[in-house]
Amino acid sequence: MLGKKSSVSAKPMKMKIRKGDTVRVITGRDKSKEGEVLTVSPTKGKVTVHQINVAKKAVRPHPQKNPQGGIIEVPAMIDVSNVQLICPRCSKPTHVVFKKDAEGRTSRKCKKCGELIDG
Ligand SMILES: [Zn+2]
After folding, report:
1. What is the CA 110 to chain-centroid distance, rounded?
2. Cα 37 to ligand 1 centroid, rounded to whole Å
3. In a shared domain, residues 119 and 75
C-alpha cells in the first residue's frame, strides 16, 4: 500500500457528507448500520465510517504505537452514494440540499425537516 501513488485528476466533489456526521449505510454488507463519519475524501467521493466496512489489517509491532503488532481493524472507504445522512435535527435519514446564506457561505439543509444542518 505504501508508495502507491494515485494520480488524482478528478475534481473534488461537493460533499454532502462531512466529518463528524452520522450516516446510515444503505447498501452492501453493512446495510442499515449507522456510524460517525471519520474521514471524507472529496476527490474520491468516499468516506470512512466508524465500525463500517471494517477491514482487518496486519500491523508490525511498533514500540510506541502498537508494541504487540498483530491484526487491527480499520474502516475501509466506502462510496458516499452508499450512505445517507442522518439529520441531527430530526434524526431521520435524509437528503441534503445546499443553501447559500447572505454572506455567501454554503450551508446544508435537511430536505425532510427543512432545518439547516450546519450551525
Ligand atoms: Zn431534518
Report:
1. 17
2. 18
3. no
- pLDDT of residue 8 exceeding 70: no
Specify the pLDDT at position 113. Answer: 97
Hey, what's the cell of 96? 441534503
Ligand 1 centre from 3 Cα, in Å? Answer: 42
Q: What angle do CA 105, 17, 40 make, to 5 degrees?
A: 105
Alpha-carbon gap, residue 119 to 100, rounded angstroms: 13
Most confident residue range from 6-15, 97-106, 108-117: 108-117
Separation of CA 60 and ligand 1 centre (Å): 44
Q: What is the pTM of this model?
A: 0.80
Residues 92 and 105 both lie in one domain: yes
What is the CA(36)–ligand 1 centre distance, in A? 17
- Domain enclosing residue 104, as ranges: 88-119
Q: What is the CATH number of the domain that holds 44?
A: 2.30.30.30
- Amino acid making up residue 21: D
CA 113 / ligand 1 centre spacing (Å): 4
pLDDT on residue 62: 86
pLDDT at 2: 56
